[in-house]
């Protein structure tokens, strides 16, 4: 678990620096998605190279798609809705956001604990200007360095 947290911290640092240097949003999304996908794939695959590779490919594909479509205002609005939802932890309450070209909702679906950390299972919906709908879900817990992704099987739900 410590390895995953350190890896996620490194990925978040990479994601922040990537946005400044990538030629466009799609490149940044591809890189960020690939890194995050590799981390998740490694965790799900218990550290196997195959799980890491599949996660990286899937993450890069999804990240490229979203990066191509979301601009900075869209991302800021989406992140604000995510932050509000995760902090409040109200189950099944939609936190809407509306950016420059896109809009969406962020929901906390379950609340629990993992190693004394508060956790949330969530669902995110993104509606693009072209009518495409992206739905994602995951589980995140709050620690001393902020929110971090975990596999839901580790969380005690209530």
Write the layout of secondary structure elements.
Elements: H1 2-21, H2 25-44, H3 49-69, H4 72-88, E1 95-98, E2 103-114, E3 117-127, E4 133-143, E5 146-149, E6 156-157
Antiparallel strand pairs: 1-2, 2-3, 2-6, 3-4, 4-5
What characteristics describe this protein?
4 helices; 158 residues; 28% strand; alpha+beta; 6-stranded antiparallel β-sheet
Please report the distance between the alpha carbons of the first and last residues.
22 Å
What is the count of distinct domains?
2
Q: What series of H and E elements makes up the topology? A: HHHHEEEEEE
Low-pLDDT ranges = 12-23
Q: Please give the radius of gyration in angstroms.
A: 15 Å
Q: How would you sum up the major sheet?
A: 6 strands, antiparallel
* Tally of DSSP β-strands: 6
Folded structure, characterized:
This protein has 158 residues and is α+β, with helices and mostly antiparallel strands. The chain is built from four helices and six strands. The protein folds into two domains: 1-69, no CATH class; 71-158, no CATH class. Helix content is 49%, strand content 28%. Strands 1, 2, 3, 4, 5 and 6 form a six-stranded antiparallel beta sheet that branches. β2 (103-114) and β3 form a beta hairpin. The chain is flat and about 40 Å long. The model is unreliable at 12-23 (pLDDT under 50).
């Amino acid at each position: 678990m410590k390895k995953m947290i350190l890896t996620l911290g490194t990925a978040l640092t990479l994601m922040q620096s990537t946005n400044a240097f990538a030629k466009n949003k799609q490149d940044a999304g591809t890189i960020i998605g690939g890194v995050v996908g590799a981390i998740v794939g490694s965790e799900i695959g218990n550290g196997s190279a195959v799980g890491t590779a599949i996660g990286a490919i899937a993450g890069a594909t999804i990240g490229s798609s979203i990066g191509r479509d979301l601009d900075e205002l869209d991302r800021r609005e989406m992140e604000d809705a995510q932050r509000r939802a995760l902090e409040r932890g109200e189950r099944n309450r939609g936190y809407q956001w509306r950016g420059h070209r896109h809009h969406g909702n962020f929901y906390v679906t379950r609340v629990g604990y993992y190693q004394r950390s508060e956790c949330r299972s969530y669902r995110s919906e993104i509606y693009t200007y072209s009518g495409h709908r992206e739905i994602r879900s995951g589980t995140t817990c709050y620690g001393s360095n902020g929110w971090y992704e975990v596999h839901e099987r580790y969380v005690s739900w209530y």
